[in-house]
Amino acid sequence: MLDKSNKATTRERGLLAKTAFMRSLSPNALATLLDSAQIMSLAARASIFREGENAQAFYCLLTGYVRLYRMGKDGRQADFRICGPGDVFAECLIPQDARYPYSAQAAENICLAKLDCREVRLLAERDATVANALIATLSEHLRATTEVLVNDRLHTAPQRVADYLLERCPVDAGSASIRLPFQKNLLAGMLGLAPEALSRAFSALRRAGVSVRGRVIQISDVKALREI
Amino acid sequence: MLDKSNKATTRERGLLAKTAFMRSLSPNALATLLDSAQIMSLAARASIFREGENAQAFYCLLTGYVRLYRMGKDGRQADFRICGPGDVFAECLIPQDARYPYSAQAAENICLAKLDCREVRLLAERDATVANALIATLSEHLRATTEVLVNDRLHTAPQRVADYLLERCPVDAGSASIRLPFQKNLLAGMLGLAPEALSRAFSALRRAGVSVRGRVIQISDVKALREI
DNA sequence: AGGCCCGATTGACATCGATCAATTCGGGCC
DNA sequence: GGCCCGAATTGATCGATGTCAATCGGGCCT
């Protein structure tokens, strides 16, 4: 479990700068953040932070995937967001939230940048581009989370799987082929399903022209899938 | 269905100014917003805006309750947030979201203030207190929505009802009495339940010392309820 | 190439919650 | 205080999904 924490290399600075969160920052703010970023690598399954820990960092994922989840009293855990390359998470920007309200775990080997949220907060006060980026990021997360919540309440498992697939199909394709960027395990969690239920949802979609081989998913009739 | 749209009276300005969103604004920004606010009253069940409509307003609720919901293809609708007095909703702050991604409906007779989100956006660029207020509001909404999502996935109906009750009990009380601020209908929606399921959840909680009479709920043993 | 191991699938079952229908309740109004 | 309508409860049933257990399969390592 490599856990060295380094300054960003040129390559990493490039990756970070292309991120949705950093793309629109003023050159000044961007430089400040890049300079203070700590780059770290973590092995699959490593914990990034846990529910209740002191929240002073703010993360930007460079490569790999991360699970954000909460645990119930009985020990079961529920994912509510899966972060991929370029995503920002744990935006603890209001001073009040001193503790992380959830846990974060590397779903595979990852590389991420750690920022100090106090610093970001102060920067946002002086530089409107930072404040704007925060607002845009939060808005987007809120939209996405709301979407997930509504989907859970409105759609069955096969419908949610179909939605997921359709979101990454070219809009006007007749057929399509998709390669999942991670294990089905993760996909199940992000759809709020047990792995078994995901499997069954895929079988249910066979009749709609969806065939699965490992991580590769063939969709013979995109339009038909939309009707599910 | 009264739908007049007026300048804010002194009383309404006072209410608005005490709102979580406006409380921390600079005097300048506060005055600007209060001056441009349109106050309107709507009858129960009136639509405030609908999914897909042009999003140019930003609302702050003064009195009553509002349902935010989305509709599925089959016409069923799912609430994802219930707004009460002082709440802000439809924060369409990034220029990109030109359309409301959901619908809003008055759950009872309400009084609300309508702001221009373009104006708020511009104000946020110049005044850091506005940007800060937006960040705080969005953070809080994100936290709350995440909480709901996780609760849905982790807890059964009686547990979610118990959670709701416990959140509005004095922390250290042995017993408590709560008066619901709205119809059970609304509560069901906000917990993601059919009204029948809410009823059944309440009966299930009888064994834990919860008794219901109309809108009044008696909890004989708060600590016991926590164990559910 | 073979074997191993973890992830994925399948089956059987239990449980939860939605739905539909039939009462009952409660609160607002006269 | 009584009436009446909409809201809430209760019952019966069904479908969806979680859970546990067994098996299968693919990828990876040697």
How would you portray this structure in words?
Chain A is 41% helix and 24% strand. Chain A has two domains: 5-153, Jelly Rolls; 157-226, Orthogonal Bundle (Arc Repressor Mutant, subunit A). Chain A is globular and about 55 Å long. Chain A has a five-stranded antiparallel beta sheet. The first copy, chain A, has a four-stranded antiparallel beta sheet with strand order 3-8-5-6. Chain A has a three-stranded antiparallel beta sheet with strand order 10-12-11. In chain A, helix 4 packs across helix 5 (128-154) and helix 6 crosses helix 8. In chain A, strand 11 (210-213) and strand 12 form a beta hairpin. Chain A has helices at 10-17, 20-23, 27-36, 117-126, 128-154, 157-167, 184-190, 195-206, 222-226, and strands spanning 5-6, 38-42, 47-49, 57-63, 66-71, 77-83, 88-89, 103-106, 110-116, 176-179, 210-213, 216-219. The interface between A and B is large, with 37 and 37 residues. The structure holds a DNA duplex (30 and 30 nucleotides).
Brief sketch in words of this structure:
The first copy, chain A, contains nine helices and twelve strands. The first copy, chain A, has 228 residues and is α+β, with helices and mostly antiparallel strands.
Detail the topology: elements first, then pairings:
The structure is a homodimer of 228-residue chains.
Chain A: E1 5-6, H1 10-17, H2 20-23, H3 27-36, E2 38-42, E3 47-49, E4 57-63, E5 66-71, E6 77-83, E7 88-89, E8 103-106, E9 110-116, H4 117-126, H5 128-154, H6 157-167, E10 176-179, H7 184-190, H8 195-206, E11 210-213, E12 216-219, H9 222-226
Antiparallel strand pairs in A: 1-2, 2-9, 3-8, 4-7, 4-9, 5-6, 5-8, 10-12, 11-12
Chain B binds a DNA duplex (30 and 30 nucleotides) through residues 156-157, 183-185, 193-200, 202-203, 213-214.
